[in-house]
Amino acid sequence: MTIPTIDLNDGNTIPQFGLGVFLMPPEVTKQHVLTALELGYRHIDTAAIYGNEQAVGEAIAESGVPRDELFVTTKLWNDRQTDAPAALHESLEKLGLDHVDLYLIHWPTPKFDTYVEAWLALEQLKGEGLARSIGVSNFHQQHLSRAIAESSTVPAVNQIEVHPSLPQFELVEFCQNLDVAVEAWSPLGRTADLDAPAVVQIASALGRTPAQVILRWHIQRGLIVFPKASSRERLAENMNIFDFELDDHAMQALNDLDMGHRVGPDPETFDRH
CA 210, CA 91: separation in Å to the nearest integer? Predict the structure, then answer.
């Protein structure tokens, strides 16, 4: 199976589908990543705060997959925004890598007003070859606009919460108009999204699972997804979304599930260190 790639604004490409390891305990992360790589996954999304970078790195080392076939993302945590170079070096040591493919500022934490300082540091880290691409996560329009205005680099990626009950149409369009690729975290949202009658009906008509239908909705919007999965079977199921399409009626039915419901924190107020 060939996973499509998205062109980034810095000339690099990113697989449109991968594996996220948020809330995955280190003791199970290694085997889970190994299984995913065996199944053909090549994009792994982790973060310093997840506490499982070392397990991801061990899986990569044992997998035998050539480094140049992998796309590895990690993120700068909020309390390290004034210390990004040291933070990235720590992440690289845990991952056992000499560079990451994408390094993100995890949250803007506007209360502390250090995300521009962090962004300027990420520019330097990219220049040093420690991150092939740099981007942000959970940035709203004003955070993106300020980072761009006060630097010389447009983020390659903005990773934000997106799912049918929080489709983020305006923010996605804002990013895409700036040529900033959008990654969707928590792409399946909550159980209510999977159980929504429209999703269940579309899945039944297509002979697919509700999760596959929602993931396909993301893909057709041009978003990048990396859902978690609890088993080998689910890993394989999530990946099997590139041999069917949703028609306009199905896409609109999913768009209409917008309720403005967040699974995670509001970036405007989230300031955890």
Answer: 35
DSSP characters over 145-176: HHHHHTSS---SEEEEE-BTTB--HHHHHHHH
What's the total number of domains in the chain? 1
Confidence of residue 1 (pLDDT cuts 50, 70, 90): confident
Residue 220's alpha-carbon distances to 18, 87, 165, in angstroms, are 16, 35, 17
Query: Can you give the CATH number for the domain in which 85 is found?
Result: 3.20.20.100
Which residue is catalytic, options 41, 50, 103, 115?
50
Minimal CA–CA distance to 240: which of 209, 200, 194?
Answer: 209
Instruction: Classify residue 271: in a domain, yes or no.
Output: no
Asked if 112 and 271 touch (Cβ cutoff 8 Å), the reply is yes
Its domain, for residue 182, covers: 5-190+222-230
Whole-number mean pLDDT of the chain? Answer: 97
Q: Judging by beta carbons within 10 Å of its beta carbon (0-12, 13-18, 19+), is residue 117 exposed, middle or buried?
A: middle
3-state secondary structure 192-241: HHHHCHHHHHHHHHHCCCHHHHHHHHHHHCCCEECCCCCCHHHHHHHHCC
In this predicted model, what pLDDT tens digit does every residue of 94-135 receive, in sequence order?
999 999 999 999 999 999 999 999 999 999 999 999 999 999
pTM assigned to the model: 0.97
Asked if the structure places residue 241 within a domain, the reply is no
Classify residue 260: in a domain, yes or no.
Answer: no
The rounded distance, in Å, linking the Cα atoms of 164 and 260 is 9
Contact indicator for 72, 101 with CB cutoff of 8 Å:
yes
Contact (Cβ atoms closer than 8 angstroms) between residue 104 and residue 134: yes
Question: What's the one-letter identity of residue 248?
Answer: D
Give the C-alpha distances (Å, rounded to integers) separating 120 from 98, 146, 186.
21, 12, 28
Annotated catalytic, 50? yes
- Structural domain contains residue 107: yes
